[in-house]
Amino acid sequence: xxxxxxxxxxxxxxxxxxxxxxxxxxxxxxxxxxxxxxxxxxxxxxxxxxxxxxxxxxxxxxxxxxxxxxxxxxxxxxxxxxxxxxxxxxxxxxxxxxxxxxxxxxxxxxxxxxxxxxxxxxxxxxxxxxxxxxxxxxxxxxxxxxxxxxxxxxxxxxxxxxxxxxxxxxxxxxxxxxxxxxxxxxxxxxxxxxxxxxxxxxxxxxxxxxxxxxxxxxxxxxxxxxxxxxxxxxxxxxxxxxxxxxxxxxxxxxxxxxxxxxxxxxxxxxxxxxxxxxxxxxxxxxxxxxxxxxxxxxxxxxxxxxxxxxxxxxxxxxxxxxxxxxxxxxxxxxxxxxxxxxxxxxxxxxxxxxxxxxxxxxxxxxxxxxxxxxxxxxxxxxxxxxxxxxxxxxxxxxxxxxxxxxxxxxxxxxxxxxxxxxxxxxxxxxxxxxxxxxxxxxxxxxxxxxxxxx
Length: 454
Prior knowledge:
Layout: H1 10-37, E1 41-44, H2 64-68, E2 77-81, E3 85-87, E4 90-91, E5 107-112, E6 119-121, E7 126-130, E8 133-138, E9 141-143, E10 148-149, E11 159-160, E12 164-168, E13 173-178, E14 181-183, E15 187-191, E16 199-201, E17 204-206, E18 222-226, E19 232-234, E20 237-239, E21 243-245, E22 249-251, E23 253-258, E24 264-266, E25 269-271, E26 275-280, E27 293-295, E28 298-301, E29 307-312, E30 324-327, E31 330-333, E32 339-347, E33 352-355, E34 358-361, E35 364-370, E36 373-375, E37 378-380, E38 396-397, E39 402-404, E40 409-412
Parallel strand pairs: 1-2, 2-5, 3-6, 4-7, 5-8, 6-9, 7-12, 8-13, 9-14, 12-15, 13-16, 14-17, 15-18, 16-19, 17-20, 18-23, 19-24, 20-25, 23-26, 24-27, 25-28, 26-29, 27-30, 28-31, 29-32, 30-33, 31-34, 32-35, 33-36, 34-37, 37-38
Antiparallel strand pairs: 10-11, 21-22, 39-40
């Protein structure tokens, strides 16, 4: 009879030893990962030193060049000292290693200390050159001095220079610019084709009034230029986007969309801009500017020449700008040659839906060549018999009875014909709200325009 063999315990002992080693290795890996994942903050001061660590206010770097060369990871923060002025550009990493955050841990570039917002200025072109993903810029200021002044008699003395505040390069996405200011530029924000899902929220852009240095261009003075897709421009104050133009007499816009698609422009206050929104085809990429939503904006201008909206039909070389949906905006243009709405060279309902808006224009409320989807609007231009637009039975030519339009108050008087005459509120991020962030409607139906009367 063969005796039973005693099972060996060696394998068990080896397994325990291996498990012990594995536990140590995993512990070290976990510790290293946790250490690497801990967000870090870097500081830049006009009183700093580039040879310092940058890791505290007392060891801040001095230049944006040093900051641009830093390697930032998700959750990290770069902070610029208030009261300081820095020569640009600020770059978000290198082309081979752009700063990349995540939705839950973006990389933040903002301010610290007390005093005026930190200024980034006078770069050769881009004051802030943006690559990478999930970046947040907050509480910054950007501007540039003109590179020259126009010598031509038509634009004599007008500032010229190819200057950008933020330039979002192709491949960047989910970039947020908020609570910041810009002035004295050709473009405050340029969102290039290939930069998508960006947000320009709650900023103050004034006097974006610089001409393109190329006289043949004739363009310039745009606060937010969009060539990318799925971007949002909201709750900003945009004022003074207007420049001389040797080709067009005047040029400029609060928002330009050339080739960008599915962009949303809502709850902005625009004052004294040559145009509020202009949409067209990007001739370089051949992409159409299309599917733009424009809602709950207040647009005021006392400039001699001003527009609210420019879109284009199929016969225009920059058209057709399909799917523009414009609702619940209040417009007051008091200039002698103001021209509120243009949809020329073959307008169709597929190009422009225009509903629940108030348009007051001293000269012409619009020029629509062709058909469009127009309903429940209030139009008014004092003393003019030619309106240049065909309106539906639900719209009317009437004084909207603003509270005090001459002093910038476009809220509605109790006697306004716009009260409770609007349609279903537009679906927007954060829900339907007017410019005072009041839920819509307050009465039996929404009010026409951007303001809901209490």
